[in-house]
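In keeping with the milestone schedule agreed at the kick-off meeting, the structural modelling team has produced records for the first pair of proteins. Each record is given below as a sequence line and a structure-token line. The laboratory manager (R.T.) confirmed that both were archived under the project's standard naming scheme.
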Amino acid sequence: MRGRTLARRTTTGTAGALAVADAGLLLCASFPVVTATAEVPRGTRARTVTFVVTGDDGRAAEGLACAECLAARVRAPGTGSGRCPARACRSAAAGRLAEGVRHGRGGVHPGDVELCLEADADPFAMAATRLDGHPVPRPVS
């Protein structure tokens, strides 16, 4: 992947970011950036952190698992991921990706779920800033 641009995209995550685009600080979280994301509210000494879980009307198992992992790390740095990635791996969304692989659908790779659940794969958080009126995530370290 060296020298290439990698784009991670989710339909529900994008819709969720748009829904809360007027937040003072909007962080786009996922397992690969969970620790770096947890450090941001601690560093700003935020008194309140609100989690917006997207997918399945806010009940997506993978989103809830990530939010719980993130909340634990905001409260207590160094907290492990616990069972959160395993719960996300058993989610309906992970099942749909696996089904896509089995059926040979384009745009789905056999390693998608594993890569999405790899905690702390990236050393930065993603904060959305406004660009032409739209929230655009940018890495912050």
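The second protein of the pair:
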Amino acid sequence: MSDASRPEPGSPVAFRWRKWDGATHWVHECVYLGRDEHGDWVGQKAGWRSVRPGRDVVAELPNVTLIPPSADFACTVNQAGHRVRIYIDLGWDVRWSDAGEPTGIDMDLDVVKATDGRGLWIDDRDEWEEHRVRYGYPVEVQRHLESLAEDLERRVGAAEPPFDDATADAWLDRLAAL
């Protein structure tokens, strides 16, 4: 999908994740916010839903998600006051579908920055180990994502843009103005 065919800012979209085998994973109710030098941004207002088989979650506070052109992660930043500030889902083929909505393959590893004293860490390593065998992730995909997880953890820890507060807060302000 070209930049010209992105939805208009303010348009509702569903961000659809699946697993490597094609199984449905998370579907997030979102709104398209726009694009900057880091990629595309979608937002989720408080009260909007995220669902997956067996789980239905309502957003407690607003959040915004960056979909970078690298297509290998999506970075969600929660409004201040949430126990997790940054949650990065490492993914594969994270992109805009022909239907004009974000989609991607969830690849288990996550980079998490909590505000409740737990700090910064790479999450779900156990799930990664199990699924890379079960689904037969290609070795080059495994190497790329393991290296990326460590690089993202470092960049989040250093508060490099777009993992700094100012970048996400500007998009949270745009979400609040809708």
